[in-house]
Amino acid sequence: MTLPCLDNNEPFPPACQALKEPDGLLAFGGNLSTSRLLQAYRLGIFPWYSADQPVLWWSPSARMVLQCDEFKVSPSLNKLLKRVARNEREPDAAISVTTDTCFETVMRACAAPRGTQGGTWITEEMIAAYTALHHQGYAHSIETWLDGQLAGGLYGINIGRMFYGESMFSNSSNTSKIALAWLVRFLRANQVPWIDCQQDTPHLASMGARPLPRAAFLRHVSEAVVQPGLCWPAGQMLGDGTIVPPM
User: Fold this and answer.
1) Tens digits of residue pLDDT in 188-216
2) Please, is 175 exposed, middle or buried when counting C-beta atoms within 10 Å of its C-beta (0-12, 13-18, 19+)?
3) What share of the chain is helix, strand, coil (3-state, %, to 5)?
4) H or E stretch at 107
5) What's the whole-number mean pLDDT along residues 135-160?
6) Residue 22 preceded by cis peptide, ω within 30
7) What's the whole-model pTM score?
8) Residue 174 φ/ψ, nearest 5 degrees
């Protein structure tokens, strides 16, 4: 099978035509315009490529999904989340959670090399494209702060009643998990049942994510993305899933 090469206006081929090896590679080429990205996500397709490659578009045969009602936390993390929700100071720092207060900073933190990792798939082109999505109200970040310093977070895309998780980072123990827990509570409060996690990893599986066949994932996406969008203001996130905008 020949891999389709897209120009900037050509529609995506059906996701079921993605390659089996590498699993899910559907097409290449085109750009990361806001309209192109929104079209892709509404079809269950996402970009993932390195700086020396053209844009590669993917729809894996099995999609890692976290159903918000199945989110798992360890007993120790659960105790920490309760203290954060009560606004209690930890022994070493005060912890707070916000949303959309520094989107690009979160993306760049997610792009930073980790350990022996030599590079990143979050290129400057992707940072510019997703920041543009953020300015249009589709891309969002969750930030965890320790004594006023950004210590962890995540970002993703929200269309209708679907959230697509992109990446997370943690500069201190549990800070990305706190951000994810607050995101789950916000999504539950707004009737968003699923988070697309894209790739199957042991870390995601430990928190309750599991792979779903592509067809089941795409059926859910097709119904979720046409529903009304969320009211998602920037501000402090509370433990009950509400957001308090700045005064």
Assistant:
1) 999 999 999 988 888 889 999 999 999 99
2) buried
3) 30, 25, 40
4) helix 103-111
5) 97
6) yes
7) 0.94
8) 75, 0
